[in-house]
Structure formats: C-alpha cells, structure tokens
Amino acid sequence: MITFLIQSPSAWGMKVERSVRSFYGAYQIGITETSRILLHGTTVHGQQYLSPGAERLPGSYYAAGSPVSNVFAHTNPDAHVAVVGLGAGEIASYSKPNQDWKFYEIDPLMVNIAETNFKHLAQMPKPASIVVGDGRLKVAESKGIYDILILDAFSSDAIPMHLLTLDALEKVFLPHLSQRGTIAYHITNQYIDLEGPLERLANATGLQGLVKHDRPNSAGHLSDGSPSDWVVLTRNPAMTQALKTDGWQNMKQGTSVWTDDFTNLYSALKRKTKSG
Question: Among 23, 66, 203, 235, which is most buried by a count of CB atoms within 10 Å?
Fold first, then answer.
C-alpha cells in the first residue's frame, strides 16, 4: 500500500521520535499535531491519534467510513480474523471481545514497533496472537479457519506478488477460509492497479469480487483519513449485498490470471492520461 502523500516528514510537520532499520527496510515513527505516524520510507503504514479518548479510533487507511471499516461493519461479532501484515496494528481497532484475531508479520522489528510505539494491540478487548514469518507460508502451516482474511502486507509499496497468484489463493488461502468467509486485499498504490488481476482470480475460483476506491479529503491531515483502494473476494452473498449498499462496485475485467509461474506486472501499471 502507498499513500498519496510522498513529501518528506518534515515538509508536513512530523517530528521524528524513532528511526530504525531491518532487513526489510527503514522505518520512522514520529508525531504531528494530531497523530503518531509510522513511515516506511515516505509511505505511511498506520497512525494513532494523540488525543486522550481517541487513541483507539482508527485513522489513515482504516478510518471510519473506509472500505475496510465497511467489511468489519458486516462481520460477525464472534468471527475468526487473520491479518497478513501488521504495520502499526491500526486495523485492530475493529476487533470485538468475542472475536479471535491473529496477525502474520514477516518482520520482527515491525512487531516491536507495533507493541512499543503504538497502543492498538494493547487496547484490543481480546489479545491477538502474532505469528512471525512469511504470511503465505505461515497461513499454509496453520490449522486456523478464518471468516475474515485481510491481506495488508507490503513490499516496495505493494502487496507482495506471491500473495496475488492463483496458487496462493487455491492452495493456501481458500483452504483456510470458512464456508462464508471473505478475503480483503489492500491494493492502494500510486503506480500499480491490482484490480484486474484480482478480478481474474475471482473469476477462476468462482468467488464474488468487489472493489471500492475511497477518496476522503486527500488534501487534509492524516486524521481525515487517507485515500485507499480495497478488493474483496468472498464466499458470502450476504457480504456482497451489504458492501454494495456501502458503495462497493463490480470489478473491471482483467487480462490474465497470475500464477506462481506467470505474472504480468507491466499490464497492471497505471497509465497517466495527457490532459488538454
């Protein structure tokens, strides 16, 4: 995922509190007037409000009214939820007391950041379990069956390609998805449009696919919510119907199914049109 804000932190008023690096990249944690922010390079990967009483409220890509908030609004209060990609743990703001949550995170340093610099995990009504390692491999190894599976991992500001193939869907994710389960892909990116490839996955597997392009006040602060793009593939007709009332739409047709042996990244590049 990638935000549309690509200026340096100092250009938009962030005071850096912590800078750390791992094999997977460099991270900065800092504060603005309203929020604590997590950056990977110039890419925002979560926030937390500073005001007392607002710390558990989600913002950025996960703010109230965002596509992912729509998904959780129609999720059972006793659902089993898995999230591939931890970030600041902001999505945990949607957890409920009777839900079981599990995070899969490849970078141990990210786990440390989420647990040390942010409070989303600590404020969950029921603690989540965290599995460190590659999300695809670890989900495959697990015995869990999930009602909601969120793919929110990032690599070079996009979902890692090995999470977007037919092999991953058929051999890993669908076997761990409940009979009325839903997979949500966070595909926000300035340069790559993953809607088409995911439509082909839905078509190949008989899943119902929907997309939502959310554009809140992108000129405002992060506390106003960030632009985000999400796709859901679901086995649940009720989820499909409910999301359509929230403005989700049918997906545009893609050109080819991506597999472990074949991807066509060029076909997914966003083309800028010339004006006037």
Answer: 66
SS3 for 33?
coil
Helix, coil or strand: residue 1: coil
User: Residue 10: inside a domain, yes or no?
Assistant: no
Cα distance between residue 44 and residue 29, in whole Å: 10
Q: How far apart are CA 227 and CA 61, in angstroms?
A: 7
pLDDT at 149: 98
Amino acid letter, 54: A
- The structure's pTM equals 0.90
Number of domains in the chain: 1
pLDDT at position 8 is 57
Q: What is the CATH number of the domain that holds 122?
A: 3.40.50.150
Q: What is the pLDDT of residue 155?
A: 65
pLDDT score at 224? 55
Instruction: List, for the chain, all residue ranges whose pLDDT scores fall below the cut of 50.
Output: 1-7, 218-223, 273-276
Q: What is the pLDDT of residue 218?
A: 45
Q: If we measure between CA atoms, which residue out of 190, 210, 206, 205 comes closest to residue 252? A: 210
- Domain assignment present for residue 19? The answer is no
pLDDT attached to residue 223: 40
Residue indicated by tokens 């890993």: 172
- pLDDT attached to residue 88: 94
Angstrom distance (rounded) from CA 228 to CA 272:
18
Q: Which residue segment(s) compose the domain that 107 sits in?
A: 57-264
Burial of 259 per CB tally in 10 Å (0-12, 13-18, 19+): middle
Domain membership of residue 225 (yes or no) is: yes
Long-range contacts of residues 206-209, Cβ cutoff 8 Å, at least 24 apart: 207/183, 207/233, 207/234, 207/235, 208/233, 208/234, 208/235, 208/236, 208/237, 208/240, 209/233, 209/234, 209/250, 209/251
Domain contains 49: no
